[in-house]
Each structure stands twice: as structure tokens, then as C-alpha cells.
Amino acid sequence: MKIKLTFSSLGIIVLIILFVISAAVIAIIDTRVTNKLEGVLWTIPAKVYSRSLDLAEGSKVNKSNLIRELEMLSYSEDKYPSKPGEFIYKKNSLKIFLRGYEDQKSGLFKILFKEGKVIKITNQLGISEDLIRFEPIAIGGMYPSHMEDRILLNWSQVPSILIDTILLVEDQSFFDHNGISLRSISRAFFTNVKAGDIEQGGSTITQQLAKNLFFTSEQTIKRKAMEAIAALLIEFHYSKEEILLAYINDVFLAQSGKRAIHGFGMGAQHFFGTSLSNLETEQIALLVGMLKGPSLYNPRRNPNNATNRRNLVLGVLQKGRRINLSSLEEYRARPLGIVSASFRSETKYPAFHDLVRLELRKNYKDSELRTQGLKIQTNLDPVLQESLENSIQNTKDQLIKKYGKKLVELEGAAIAVDISTGEIQAVVGSSNPSKFGFNRSINAIRPIGSLVKPFIYLTALNKYDKYTLTTIMDDSKLSIMSGGEIWEPNNFNKKFHGNIPLHVALWQSYNIASARLGLELGYDSVEETFNKLGISKSIERYPSLFIGSFEMSPFDAIQSYQAIAADGFYSPLRSIRDIKNIKGDIDLSYQYKIEQRMRPEPVYLLKFAMQQTFISGTARGYSRKKIESWQAGGKTGTSDDQRDSWFVGFAGDLLVLVWLGFDDNRATPLTGRSGALEVWKNFINDIQPSSVEKNSFPRIKYVWTDKNDGLLSGEKCKNSLLVPFIIGTEPNTIPSVRNRCASKPKRNQSDVMKKLKKVFKEGQG
Amino acid sequence: MNKFRFVIPFFAFFLFLSCASNQDKKYIASDSISISEFSSSVELLVSDTNFLEEEILKINAKNPSVQRILVNSDTYLKEGKLIQANSELERALRITKKESAIYLRLAHLRLIQGLTDESKSFASRALLIKEISSWERLLLNVYLKSFI
Q: Does the structure show a pLDDT above 80 at A751?
């Protein structure tokens, strides 16, 4: 059978083909539209925040740290704070207009301070408030590959003035058209023909939303046609309210390094450091004005353009009778009020971010972190973090000045934690802290030098019936066979010191006395202490272990010192406080854990010896009053050939560990004292921790002893020192040479010792 | 319930003697208490956890701001919202670490969460706080003893 192709039948076939192609194109566009609007647009990266600062009556506050935090939060000083984000600090009072965060409402508050503590908080009506909360600082996120960052808003979070402004400026007939406005298109067409170029867009809000779906800004007829089809499809599938809300959440507002800032919620945070609901009319006008050209009208880069554009939008609002003439003048006179830029890549603090990510991966899949809008509140204290970063950088500069260019490649790591809760407050993993890459705080595994010694001495002090702080140690020449060779440890000063009390051997960090003590205690006994302090790695049974061949990362080292600083109560270090889901409910809480690993009394004795590092040893230089108020203590560490410089120290509620060295493990000219300790001191001097109250140790008694022989002495005797003992273990012999200046003890030691043992055996309390 | 209330003052009295600040007296006094007798009495006291909880929640913080947070925590605890109760207690702890009322609640909360060792550790940690009353000391000792 022959088919006659007539002109009309050919036309029908062509039409059918065109219809099929069009239907396919529409189907493809439809899939993309629905996928985006129901999928990608609602995938929100997890956001990481610093801790939020609570202030309550009794809170310890360091004024300069508080002001620094306010600056980091972009609060500005104003004589009469009247708007969110303003404050004034006078004498001992802070007046602040809080922006509001979670359950903390925005408003004016007055806080009175006395002797480093908050003594009263009142609101603007003069009524006492128990507690106020500052907003946290956004420090990073877990982004998908396109790096789009947004905060998803629902209708109740969108202020009506924003809707009015968008409609007036972008699409006045939004509620009347079906996705495409022929009136707008014809107006744009005539303008563009006249100009001979595409100068004006006739896009409706729906078309603009459609445009974003195709991730391109090229202006071609084909793309315009697809955009128009997509707009019609969007209108077909969704209500006007849904379209407007999607637009508000999706518009591109700025590029911040790798991050793309989308939506008005994120825009408000990015430019004004607060939520959209807290924005003033002129701030909303600025954001809406930016839609015409996010780069051209970026208020940080082009403040003049941005101001002109904002004022123009305010004029549109006045013409549209959303604001009156006097408000228009007032709003136009206001400054832009932009906060300083936050992080530009994944995070502001790479080393801390690493810890957060490692922790999160234990409980969340990568895809969950990048799409579910989780809100991660960490324990990071932004002021401590900045200070620790500066301390490492500044100290390195000082060391280069002192030792020359050979230290240019010097690297470092430092960690600051809250002693009792184990909250990680600051982490630095490089001498260039903002650099991404090798994070030495967790990955540099190095010999800890004399940082190991407190573990050995603690093992001894736990055997309180045999060792006290004044037990005499032998620091004379030691020569033993180890691994088929003779091992003869040396002191750092290459001298022998004979018989010395235990506490002196520790704070003077004598190697020979420590090695002899370790050998006497035995590897098993020492390993047991390691385990109690949280060190799971098994020890190598060489005597060099006792003077510092043991290798640890800074993170693991500070974890083991946490239990010491916290009087024997081990708390796993935590970088994250809690994780909330997109609705604001707690999804996972990293709650405070403690485990009593040791009796507090032997740890107390060790801390006394570590305090001597500040009073008489390598870290001296602080006043006795300061050391007492901080309950400070510490230990320096230097590995073989000075390849590693360590210092760990506690002051106030803070435990801080610092490591310095080269990545290729070559020798440095630094000891623990001349290197890491300098970083520690710069940090602590800058932060000035608050004082801490002493804990109660009813089983501890202080006795005057002689610094050399460790036997009883008296306050009036030369060379005497007040040393703590577990009751019943104190010395009771007064050498005849000190009979005159010392007084005899009144009690019989053996009786008390029996009672002490009984109490220890039968339980605490 | 009433028989417990009758027993408590005696514990408090004995404990006061055992914990007096003068160490010489302390050891003499502790000799006068039979530890086994004490333990069995404590077990009797804690056989009713609701009663124990009532007693714990009566311990107020000295700091009024901290007390307000504790009230929030107590409300969450009664509603069975343990994570929120814990968050509030940690919030209080960031203001001060010297209020035994916080540690008592943490010890109790951990017990409810089934974390007995942690409960003991919190109780033990609280015993290091200065200016702790004999009644608080007794309650803390309840958590130090293995029970339930």
C-alpha cells in the first residue's frame, strides 16, 4: 500500500513530532521544577555555632573578654542603646539591647558587675531578670558541593514588611498573573529594543524563581522560553503563597568566599548578624534592593551603591504608602548597620571544625549533615579561640625575633578545655590557625617529654602508705641494662642532685630520680595510672618511658591531664553541646559525663607539686596571690634533642596545653619553658581567667617540712616549706638541728594511720 | 514513708558528727558509727525513689538565678524530659560549680537514666564542695552506695 504524502498530512506529522518534543521538554522541565521545589531547595546544611553566653547573677565575668565577645557579635557602642545590637559599658554596668536568640527575647537590659561577677540584671522596666542569653556566633557549616547556605523560613517567620517590599519592588501584579506578566514583558521588550540590548527584565517573581532552577544567568531566547514554561508549571503546581515563600528562601543574595548566601533568613544573619524578624525596615529595604544586583549592591564591597539602592527602595515603599514621609527621612538617614563578615569557607576555625566533624560522624551520615538543617551548638568560646590563635602566632613571631629565621617553619598546636566539664573551648592546629590542612592538635603524635612525669608521681602518691610528697628520692647516677644495652639517663643540666624530696624531683623535673621511681613502681603499676587517666595505648616497657619517650597527640595529652586537673574525676572531652533538628528540638545531646578514676587526695598532692612549677620552678613570675586565686599548676616538657616543646597548665577553670615543634621532627632551640610555656603565658595573660574557690579536702593536712631532707620543720626554720599530707602520713621526726625552730607534732602517727586506712577501706564520705 | 522521716534526723545527726571540720574529732566520731549499720539504714531510706526525689528537689541553690534554672530542670524531670533537664543542669553548672544542689540533681538524674557509676561520681564530686550541709552530705552518700 502506498501512502500519499500530501502537504497537509506532512504538516500533521510535523505537528505531531513538535508536540511530542514539546511534551518531552515540558516533562523534563516539570521534573526539574518539582525536584527543586520539593527537594534541593529544602535541603539545608547543618550549621555550627559557638556556645551562647549566659549571664546570671553570680556569673564570673572578665570585662574585657565580654566587650571582645560583643565586638565579635558586631554589637556597636552607643551612648543610648535603643536598637538591637547596641550597648554602652560604663563603670561597672553594661546597658545592652539584645538581638534575641531562642528563648531570649530582644530588648534592653542593664547588667551590674562587682568584683568580676554579675550582681544584678534588670530589663527596661527595671524588673530583675535571673538570666540573659547572648546569641552564639556562626562558625561554620556542613555544606553540599554547591555550597549553598540558607536558613529556611516558614510563613510565621516572614515579616509583612518584607512581603510588601518584595511585591512593590519586584512584582506588583504577583497575585494577578499566572506566572508570566505580558504587561511586564512588553514594557521590557520595548525598552530593550530601544536600547539594542537586554537592559530590563520583565520577569515576575515566579519567573525569577524559575530562573534560579537552571543555575545560569545567561540571557538567551531559548533559556527565556524554558524559564517561561517553568514559571507556568510552577504556577500550575503551587499556590501563590508557596511560590512567594520559596522565592524568599531561595533568592541569591551574596557570595562569601566559597559560600553562596541564599534566602532572606541567611541574608539577615550574614549582613546583620540577627534573624529576619529582628530587622528594621531600612535593613529589609537594603536586602530587597540587593536582588537587582547582589554583587553591585553588596553593602560590604559597594556601600555607596548599596545605600543609594536602599534609599530608592525606601522611596518605593513611601510611594506605595507602606511608610510615611517622616519615617522615610529617618530610615534614609540611618547607617547601613552591616556586621563584620563571618566565615568565608566551610568554617572560621578549621581545627575546631575537625573535632566537631569527627564527633558528628559517629552519629550522623554525611548526607544527613549536609541536608537536614541540623543546628550544632558547640562548646567553642570565641574569645578564647581568637586569643589562643593570636597567642600561637604572636609567640612564634617573638621566637623568630629571638632565635632567627630557622624558626620560620615552626608549627604548633594548642587546646583549652574547661577542667571539670571537659568542654573544649578553643583549639588551634597550626601556627597559621585559619589554614586548612594538617591538624596537629589531633594528628601530631610526638614524644611528650617530661609531661609523662606527673603520671609516674601520681602512681607513687596513690600508694599513700609508701610515698608522700617528702619521700626522699635518689637522683644519683643510674646505670641499668635495657634491651641488651646500658641505659644511663641524664638530667637536663647534666648534674646529679643526690637525695631530694619527691615534690622537688617533680617540679625540678629531674630525669634520674623519675626513672628510678618508675622502675621502683613497675611498668604494670604505671600503666594502670595511664589507663585511669584515659590513655588506652599500651606502653612499651623500656625505662625511657619514665622520662618521656611516650608519644601522644596534644588532644590525648590534654585529656589525660583533665582527670588530674579535675581532682581525679575523668570527663571525656566534648566539642559539641547539643544538636537540634530543623524544628528546634534536641536531636542529640552530648551530656556531661564524669567518672571518678582516683581518690582526690593523692591528686591534690600531685597538683601541689605542679603548683611549685609556678612558685619556684620553670613557670615562675606570677604573684603568689594570682597563683592561689587561679589554683594554678603546670608542667613543662621537652623531648630528646629539643624536638618538641610542651607545656600543660591549669589556671582558674581552664586547662591549656601547648605543643611547638617542626613537622619534619628536626631539633628546635626550644625547651618547654622557652617555647610552649610562652604561648601559654601569652594566652593566660590575655584572658585573665577568673579565680576559683578551693575544694574541700578534709583528709589533707599541711605540715612544715624541710625543702632538702623532707623531715619536719617549722615556720621559723630556714629552708622550710608548708607541704600537704594525707592525714596520718605526715613525717613526725624533727632533726636535732631544727629542735629550736620547729615544734613537735602532738599526735601519734600510727594510731591515725590505722584510722585513715580503715576509713579508706570502708568507703568515702 | 513516715518511718523514713523519723530515721532521717538521726542519720543527719550522726553524719554531722562524722563530718565535723575538726579532723581529730572526726576520726573519733567515725569510730562511733557502725558502717554496716549506716549502709543498711541508707538502703532503707532509698528503697522509695519517689521519696528520695522529693527530698532532692527540696534542696535549693543559694544563688537565686541558679535556683530558677533548677526549677526549670525539676519541671522537665517531672515531665520525664531527661535531656532537657540535663541541659538546664549543665547551664546552671556553667554559672557556678559550687552549688551542691546542682550535683545532687545530676546524681539523681543519672540514676534515673540508669547510669549508676556516673551517679556515684557526681555525688562523690559534690562532696568536694565546701560549705555543704550534713543533710546534703547524707543524701549524696545515698548515691555513693550501690542500690537499685
A: no
